[in-house]
Each structure stands twice: as C-alpha cells, then as structure tokens.
Specification:
With 239 residues, the chain is α/β, with parallel strands linked by helices. It is 34% helix and 25% strand. It has seven helices and eight strands. It starts with 7 loop residues before the first helix and ends with a strand. Pathway: Cofactor biosynthesis; ubiquinone biosynthesis.
Length: 239
C-alpha cells in the first residue's frame, strides 16, 4: 500500500481545525467562501458531461462520487444532496469524526473513511479533490491514484491555487497575514500552474477538458472567471 500523498504535518494542521470546520466565521472561513464557487463549477461540469437537465435537483442520482481530502464534508454533503452515493476520505481522523457528526445532524448518508486515495479500492463516476494537491508529497503519484479511482466514462474535478505572484500575495501574504487563512497553511513552492497540472493529468492518462479560474474582486468576492491567476479548477476524463 502506497501512502505517497501523506504529509503528516499537513494532516496534523488540518486535523486541528476539525472543531470549528463548519463555523463559517472560524478557521475554515475561506473554504466556506470557496465552496459555493466550486460547487457551481461541479454542477456545470456534471450537467455537461452527462448531458443532464440543468434544472434537475438530483443530477447525480444513480451515480457514485468520491471526494478526496474531504475535510469535514463541505463538498461531500452537497454532492449527496445532488443525488450521488458519496464516499469521502481524509487522512485526518478528527476531520472524519467531525464530518460524520455533521452529516448525521443533516440526515445525510455519506460513507466517510479515514484513508488515503492510494489505499482505497473501487471506482467512482465522479472524483473530486479540492485544494488538496498543493498539500501532498508527490503530486504526480497523487494524480495517478485519482485516475485509478475513476470509473470508465467518469469525470475528475480538481481545484488548486495557481503558482503566480498574485496568488502568493492574496493567499499567503494577505489572507494568512491577517488570519483569514491559518498562518502556515500554504507553501508557495508547492503551488501548481495550470500547464503543469495538465501535464500531470496527461502523464496519468487523463485529458483535461476544461480549466476555469476562481478570481476575487471587492464587489463580487470569489467567483468563477477566465482569470486563472489566483486559483483554478480543472475537469478531466480518461484520454
């Protein structure tokens, strides 16, 4: 069993945030702001990929989903509400415990597991991993492990900060500097540019079918954009 994605310091750091993960004003406040933007992208890509009804309430009904690095379930719960049978994994036991508790309170059935993607079996129609790849030890091996979990005809969606000066300024210098993101969360040397991301996907036998930015403005806040400088999402399928 390979644990190539494991960086223990990262697990400990995020695990320490479990207690207030669901507090929109707590240590995970930025993730709460990011989540609706990411979810809008996921919904759009799901509708496109499976040519579903854009007005339908359960576009993932009858499909399986895997959320890798799920934290305490910010994305996994909406995926379940969209109709998916959801498995969600994280290497931090405290986060999984918080996720299980919150899901029960919401009446949601999500299969939460303390696991790495390398240790997991099975394949899933939709695989998501949001703001995770910049925290792993070996991005190439991590993407390859994600590909192994993707079912034939499936869809993979990732998000990550871009490796730009603008991203470093907003994410580390400003957001971490003022405490909007816990200090030490990010290492700029591990940020991944879209070109490198597409190469990692190609090396794993995946084809990138879409790239979209997450930008910030004082009037709109975080929003989907053609501007990739801050953060971006990618959708991929088997090549």
């Amino acid at each position: 069993m390979s644990d190539s994605s494991i960086v223990q310091d990262e697990i400990d750091r995020f695990g320490a945030m479990a207690g207030d993960w669901w507090d929109p004003s707590g240590a995970s406040a930025m993730l709460h702001k990011l989540n609706p933007v990411r979810l809008a992208y996921v919904r759009d890509q799901v509708d496109r990929h499976w040519q579903g009804d854009e007005q339908g309430l359960k576009p993932l009904a009858g499909r399986t989903a895997l959320d890798v690095g799920c934290g305490a379930g910010l994305l996994a719960e909406p995926l379940a509400r969209l109709g998916a049978t959801v498995t969600a994994i994280d290497a931090a036991p405290g986060l999984i415990a918080a996720a299980q508790l919150h899901a029960r309170g919401q009446g949601l059935d999500v299969d939460y597991r303390v696991s790495t993607v390398e240790a997991l079996d099975g394949q899933y129609d939709l695989v998501t991993s949001m703001e995770v790849i910049e925290h792993v030890a070996d991005p190439r091996a991590f993407v390859a492990a994600l590909e192994r979990r993707l079912a034939p005809g499936g869809l993979l969606i990732l998000s990550t900060p871009n490796a730009t000066g603008w991203s470093k300024l907003l994410t580390i210098t400003l957001a971490e500097g003022v405490g909007a993101i816990p200090r030490g969360t990010h290492d700029f040397d591990k940020f991944i540019a879209p070109e490198r991301m597409q190469a990692l996907l190609a090396d794993a036998g995946l084809q990138c079918i879409d790239v979209e930015g997450i930008a910030f403005s004082p009037t709109r806040g975080l929003h989907l954009s053609d501007d990739l400088r801050l953060n971006y999402l990618v959708a991929a399928v088997r090549a």
